[in-house]
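Technical note accompanying the year-one report. For the benefit of new consortium partners, we illustrate the data format agreed upon in the data management plan: each record pairs a sequence with a structure-token string. No post-processing was applied to the example shown here.
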Amino acid sequence: MSDNEEITKKITDAGGQHAVTSRYRHPSVTPFVVGTGSKGVFDIEKVAEMLQSALTFIEQCGRHGQVIFFVSTRRETVDLVEKTAENLLLPRMLNRWIGGTLSNFKHIRGRVERLERLQREKDEGKWTKYTKKEKVLMNRELTKLESRFSGISTLENLPAAVFILDTYREKNAVIEANNAGIPIIGFSNANADLHVVQYPIIANIQSRDTVAYVLSLVENAYRRGASGGADKKAAK
């Protein structure tokens, strides 16, 4: 069985072929959908080809040690994205998109450095010189910074690429990435505009199994690149 045949089977088995109804479908997705109305499904063979193109790019990023920044705020599958990013030791933004993350990176990096400085001083016991009220305020600031920026503490420069789960939802992240000239790997349903994404992946992202499977392929592709292409077998 070829890689594309396996991908086709796995996505179909997971229910990833189901597209949103034509009422919500973006025109750019039309060539990849078979059927109309609520009976429309993705042409999985075309989806597999599209996915392979994205995986090739991801593997190249891994081979060159380039950073992919993971973005998703979908509560239903945010844990899957977090696990993938953590496994690859790559930065992620999961609670909500913070405006300026890419377009005003210098400011965002300053907030990360503030987080690191506060945490370091606390760990080293340097807060003993502050009053009880000052410590409460500093702890409050530290907690707030952690919730916003802990996932991007390793992002010292703009990333080589951004992986976005649900580009329809994360429009601001898409705009900032495009304005910064950063390639987007966009995993979305049929309601997303494929024209604003350099490496689109389309499937039923309402299906947790589909998302999990695609993310496993993403992780394997990056690892394969990082290890020099040693393991060329797709995720089972």
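Partners are asked to follow this layout when depositing records. Strands lie at 33-34, 41-42, 68-71, 92-93, 161-165, 184-188, 199-202.
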